[in-house]
Amino acid sequence: MASKPDIRNLDQRQLIKFFENSGMRGYRADQTLRWLYFRRADNFDQMTDLAKDARTLLSTSFYIGKPAVRDKQTSEDGTCKFLFALEDGNAVESVLIPEKDHYTLCISTQVGCAMGCTFCMTAKTGLTRNLSRAEIIGQVIAAMDAAESRGGMRLSNIVLMGMGEPLANYKNVISAIDAITDSNWGLKFSTRRVTLSTAGLADRFDDLARDARIRLAVSLNAADNETRNRLMPVNKAFPLDRLIKACANYPLPARDKITFEYILIKGINDSEKDALQLAKLLRPVRAKINLIPLNQHPGSGFVRPEIKEIESFQSILTEKNYTAIIRRSKGADISAACGQLRGETKTLSHS
Ligand code: SAH
């Protein structure tokens, strides 16, 4: 099986080329794509409106991968964490989060992460490798199946906020987003309901604006370079002035804003002065702010502030006319919250 490629690693252009090179008409590609994404087929025999010779050609050349759910844990709040086994023995996690009237899925883009943020658990292992296009899409397909089998709400929102830095796996991420959002043959997610979160790789913002029309979130976490260098080493490569300039230049549809995520850490970035500096820093940008109380883990030395302090930080931003929402991340009891994903099988000890 491993000798044949997973067909979901080919984008539309490559699949058209494949058919043409095999002496078949290119329109077969669109038929195939519709089966692979919109209909979520898991074998070529299902593709009944495709001529037999085309089906045979596909099945001798490719296979249709399906991410293996190695484990699934459900939190008290309904949040569900999937551990997916990848073919090379690595694993990644995705988190399915029930909201009021829909599900949001948080997906991973890399095995591990190279960003080295000092408050984040995923950073501890470093980067193992990028996920392929098929592995990124596979998380969405598996979660759509799971949401449907539960019945009720639809999975309508996707956040690229799981393990890894999406802009450091640029090509595969963009290619996966194409299949996730294509409204003709794809999984048909609205581009307004797909959000990419970055640690701030500002040199990719122009490319992103050109290649995908999704929402952008930036993990800021500090309003001065000294603090941000300490929390997020990537700030040394893309310091705040460069990052904010890239955000200000990012073309946004009418009424849309960039979301800035700001983890609150006691005594590090949660003072009144920090809030005022943040308000000033974001002036040039159409911004809204998500305040995330730190999810603590042992050994990091970082502590979550009291709720009173979090609320007074919020009220300073509100006074300065920002929309600032306190976001308690869900699924903390099963280590599914922000900054807790690890993708290691050996940490799972439940039955
Ligand atoms: N690399 C991307 C996406 C993954 S991190 C990025 O940096 O945005 C997703 C979010 O989880 C980020 O906003 C990050 O700041 C947050 N996060 C990481 N560790 C956390 C922790 N311990 N507590 C709360 N949020 C955390």
What does this protein look like?
The chain is α/β, with parallel strands linked by helices. 31% of the residues lie in helices and 19% in strands. It has two domains: 7-61, DNA polymerase, domain 1 (Orthogonal Bundle); 68-347, TIM Barrel (Alpha-Beta Barrel), CATH 3.20.20. The chain has helices at 12-21, 27-38, 52-61, 133-150, 170-181, 205-211, 225-231, 240-249, 272-281, 307-319; strands spanning 68-74, 80-85, 91-98, 102-106, 110-112, 127-130, 154-160, 194-198, 215-219, 258-264, 287-293, 324-326. Strand 11 (287-293), helix 10 and strand 12 (324-326) form a beta-alpha-beta unit. Helix 1 crosses helix 2, helix 4 (133-150) packs parallel to helix 5 and helix 9 (272-281) packs parallel to helix 10. The chain is globular, with a radius of gyration of 21 Å. Mean pLDDT is 94; it is low at 346-351. S-adenosyl-L-homocysteine (SAH) is lined by residues 115, 119-120, 161, 165, 197-199, 219, 221, 261, 263, 292, 294-295, 338-339.
